[in-house]
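User: My collaborator sent over this chain with a note saying "see what the structure looks like." That's all I know about it. Can you take a look?
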Amino acid sequence: MRSLDLLSAIFRRHSAVRRVGRIQSVESTSVHISGLSDVACVGHRVALGSSEHVQGEVVKVTAATVQVLLDGETKALRIGEPVRHLGQVKLYPSETWLGRVIDGSGAPVDGKPLVQGSKAVSIDNQPPSAVSRRSLGGRLATGYALFNTLLPLVRGQRLGLFSGSGVGKSSLMAAFAREVEADIVIIALIGERGREVNHFVKSVLGQKGLQRSVVVASTSDQSPLSRRQAALSAMSIAEYFRDQGRHVLLLLDSVTRLAEAHREIAT
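Assistant: Without extra context I'll predict from the sequence alone. Here is the result:
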C-alpha cells in the first residue's frame, strides 16, 4: 500500500496540462511574460526557455504581463521563448530525508537520489492563531551543564544566538543538533559558502547529528530567491514532522543572511 501511495503521489505531481506564456522583455535580473496573467499569482514558479533550465518567481502580475525575478542569469533568454507555469512551490517530505542535504526546492545536493513522500506540503503555510498556540513545555535536556542549569531550554522556546564571526555559533548549533532532546532536527544553512556547507555537515555536525537531521542548504552564490526559499522550506519540513507528533528542533543559520536575501529581492 505504501508503494501505491508513493506512485499515486508521483502522478499527481505531474499535471498533463501546463499553461505556457512567452517572454516579452528581458532585463538584468527579471523578465516580463505574456500569456500567464490569468493563471499566475505572486509567489508562483515558472520555467523559462526551450530547455527550461532557468526558473524564477512571479513578483508582479498585471492585466497584460507577469514580471518574474530569476534564480539564474538572463543571458541565454530570448524574446518569444516559451515560459511554463509551474505554480506554487510544494515539497514532499518523508522519513527517508533524514540524514540528507537538500536545497530549498526539495532536490538533493549530496549526490544521491531522494525518495519523495506522498503528502504535498506548501512552503507558504499560515501561522496558527494566537489563541490556539500551546504554552511552553517542560525543560529539555541538552547534554551540556550550562544549558541544563543556568540557561535552560524548554519545549516550544525560540532562542537567538548573536555574536561576531568565527566565535563558535555553528559549533554550538551542531552541538544542539547532536544532543538536544528532540526526535528530528531541521537545519537551514542560508547564504553559507559552498565549502563551509560541506565542512559543517561532515566535520562539525558529524554522523551522529546528521543521522537525525535534514539539512536544507542554499549557498551564497545562489540567488536571494533560493536563499529565502531554503528558510521557508526548512520551516515547512519542520511543520510536517511536527504534525506527525514528532518533537522537532529547527535551527536557522543565519537570520542575518535571510534578511539580506529579503532586501535583495525588495530592491
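A starting point for your reply to your collaborator: The first strand starts at residue 20 and ends at 26.
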